[in-house]
Write a structure and sequence with these properties.
The chain is of the alpha+beta class and 240 residues long. It has a domain of 100 residues. Helix content is 32%, strand content 40%. The chain contains four helices and 14 strands. Strands 1, 2, 5, 6, 12, 13 and 14 form a seven-stranded antiparallel β-sheet that branches. It has a five-stranded antiparallel β-sheet with strand order 7-8-9-10-11.
Length: 240
Amino acid sequence: MSQKPPATVTSTRRTLVIALVVVVTLLIGALVAGEAYARHKISRCISTQFEKDMGSKIDVGFGWRPMLLTLIDGKVSRVTVDSADSKFGPAVGMVVHARFKDLDVENAGQGGGTINSSSADVTWNNDGIRQTLGGLVSDVHSSSSSGMLTLDVLGGLAQLQVQPRVTNGVVQVDTMSAELLGMGLPTDLVQGIVDVFTQSLQSYPMGLKATDIKVTDDGIAVKLEGGRTELEAGPDEARC
């Protein structure tokens, strides 16, 4: 007959198992807490600088790579940025979803760094365009088939038709027609509206440049791309 191990041996084994479970649990808890701290710290630092350049409140997300490693080597594989309020720079109602890849950051992002590549999708709805262009424009209609936007001016007494296009990474807005009761609109009035429209479509940060623009039945959709770009260090009061 086999003999049972002494009670003291069984008790020692049980104690070791419990101790190992406690140690593993503490290590996992420490790693989880450390990862949460690292993500909060790096997110705060990067958000502060991105919001400064983008002129809008943003939501920041990261890729799969643990942020604890970023604290060690300063590398971030991917950052996604979504505009989090109803205004992007001067443009009311503009929504931006941007992706930044292969970031090298210093001191968790508060010391600046480098973005190696980026891209973004921008949408701007007709009502947001109307609000951005001010009181002279009472309504905005867009047509995907014609590629043009029609702006009702002076309470609908006049209409201004414009067509956006991309040239060398910059959005330009061409005036296609401008009429008041069958007569031409004053040049200064037309130019003022078109200038505000154009400037709102050129305010892109982080080295992003327009590669394509489409007029939809709801507004405008713009695609942006960017190459290697420096990420400046934040001011002392924004340091994490």
